[in-house]
Specification:
Blueprint lengths: L1 E8 L7 E10 L7 E2 L10 E2 L8 E10 L2 E10 L5 E6 L6
Antiparallel strand pairs: 1-5, 1-7, 2-3, 2-4, 2-6
InterPro entries: FA58C, Galactose-bd-like_sf
Organism: Scophthalmus maximus (Turbot)
Protein name: F5/8 type C domain-containing protein
């Protein structure tokens, strides 16, 4: 699948959410997890939510081809909680 973005929300029934996170992914061919990097080659930090109900959209530019996606929480409010939606490319977006 080609992933072009991530939508995140916190827990719907409690004040718990992720404030920032990193993304790792794997392809069919690789066994090792790959960090999504920024333009300077550093592990990209995505900023998440500031409340439990708002959606935050983070786009992946460039998109990634992945079989598996892993979200690594780096900061959170109260406890780690995440509702997640992956944005996929239906047509060629690479």
């Amino acid at each position: 699948m080609v992933v072009s973005g991530i939508l995140s929300q916190g827990r719907c029934d409690a004040d718990e959410w992720i404030t920032k996170y990193s993304v790792q992914y794997r392809t069919e061919e690789t066994l090792n997890w790959i960090y999504y990097k920024d333009q300077t080659g550093n592990n990209r930090v995505f900023y998440g939510n500031s409340d439990r109900s708002s959606s935050v959209q983070n786009l992946l530019r460039p998109p990634i081809v992945a079989r598996y996606i892993r979200i690594l929480p780096l900061g959170w409010h109260t406890r780690i909680a995440l509702r997640l939606e992956l944005l996929l490319c239906m047509n060629k977006c690479m």
